[in-house]
Amino acid sequence: MIPVVVRNVVTEAQGVVRLVLGSEEGADLPCFEAGAHIDLHLPSGLIRQYSLCRMQSEAQYYEIAVLKDPQSRGGSAEVHRLKIGDGLSISEPKNHFPLIDTKRHSVLVAGGIGVTPMLPMAQCLQKMGLPFEFHYCAKSPETAAFSSALENSSFADKMHFHYSQDPSSGRMDVVNVLSRHSNDSELYICGPADFINYVLLQAKMLGWPEDRLHREFFAAPALDEKVSENSAFKVKIHSSGEVFDVEADQSIFEVLDNNGVFLAVSCESGVCGTCQTGVIHGVPDHRDVFLTDKEHTQGRLVMPCCSRSKTPVLELDL
Description:
Order of helices and strands: EEEEEHEEHEHEHEHEEEHEEHEEE
CATH architecture of the largest domain: 3-Layer(aba) Sandwich
Number of strands: 18
Organism: Marinomonas rhizomae
Number of helices: 7
Largest sheet: 6 strands, antiparallel
Number of domains: 3
GO biological process, one term: methylation
CATH topology of the largest domain: Rossmann fold
Domain 2Fe-2S ferredoxin-type: 233-318
Radius of gyration: 20 Å
Distance between the termini: 24 Å
Strand content: 25-35%
Strand order of the largest sheet: 4-3-6-1-2-5
Protein name: Vanillate O-demethylase ferredoxin subunit
CATH superfamily of the largest domain: Nucleotide-binding domain of ferredoxin-NADP reductase (FNR) module
Helix content: 10-25%
Keywords: 2Fe-2S, Flavoprotein, Iron, Iron-sulfur, Metal-binding, Methyltransferase, Oxidoreductase, Transferase
């Protein structure tokens, strides 16, 4: 863990604050690549993941931007109560949403606060002289964090703003945008779950290959009636041969934790990828949004924080 101090708090848009986090003694913080996030350990004990929203201009600072979510489980509301001088702990940067090392055209699509990992991506692509376009979807300029900065950025000519409540702008024509680049581009998308799923569905219908669709969810979509279909199963630990019962109202992680089997977990909703675990035998019942459709089909990995088993026994590579 890295101790940091809140050095500045800035209102970036309606309901969005940007925090500048600095190292305690002014030492350099670990460097990171575009798309990275940190685990933020809040005073209450809550742990939340937030994208680093700008590339470092000074090595001792990180910046995150957080939307106060009306459906907040407490994390974003607590972030909005933080003040300059408050001490926090963070993890080293992790990156499950990196830019792919390719010379292909990149299409960046941000929905609302999903702009945070996209901004450093655009900064990097611009610096490297690689072709890209950046589509930013929000309700209005007032709710769009960093809109002014993006309008005046070095890549302003690559920006496309889509404001659903602005008649002069309107919603993004997803099919039109994606149909122009299905053969020559990488797609990066971040935002609300329903927004991401809709864009990915349109991309697949237009023939985009799965390996060129890159996404990061901030929250898992609703499971609809799946939750009521939970059934009990057993989880087996490959290294020890131990077998534990997972009841219908328990997660794999809870059972492992109760039996002294350590597994790093953060989001507990299948979003962040922290608990990704190999599967030796059995068929996972995937409930995460971190793994790709291909990885779900292969069944070699599972997120024990939220996913379950379709077979009586699920043997894990632990």
